[in-house]
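Is zinc ion placement plausible here? Inputs below.
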Amino acid sequence: MQSKAEAEVEQVKARRTRDEERLSSGAITNPKDLENLQHELGALERRIATLEDEELTVMEDLEIAEAELRAVTADHDALVAELEHVTAARDAALAAIDDEIAAVQSERESTAPAVPKDLLALYDKVRAQYGGLGAAALRARRCEGCRLELNGADLRELAARPEDDVLRCPECSRILVRTAESGL
Ligand SMILES: [Zn+2]
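Reply from A.M.:
I modeled the complex. Tokens:
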């Protein structure tokens, strides 16, 4: 835009120079031709002024656009930095979860052989049914799997069972693990 306006200014200025030379050369003597030439010179001056104003406006617009570009670029850079930061945090969290899964799996692998086969089968069956939690602690009369408090009759029934009996929650059927605070 700017170079196009500049080129037009140059073209109009060249024509003005040519006209001025013709005027000062004295070659034009006809009064009508002289008047026409002076008219044209006046028109060329006005055209130059207009073009120079336009050029100034274009330069101002360019400065505004460049400032906007700088602001948008800064925003973009900040977002890229934030994205990198969030991605690194996500990757670290995923790595921590993977470590935890590996630890829990290895714990299960070392614990499972000591658990009787039928109890392990029951645990896996209930676990599959509830999406992960096959056994829950019985604490303060409450099953920590379904969070329901057991009624007095159920608690008395559970308390009467032998120590090595596998207890099941009367509400959700999960295996109940006796604790010191079971309330039995
Ligand atoms: Zn339960």
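Short version: Residues 143, 145-146, 148, 169, 171-172, 174 surround zinc ion (CB under 6 Å).
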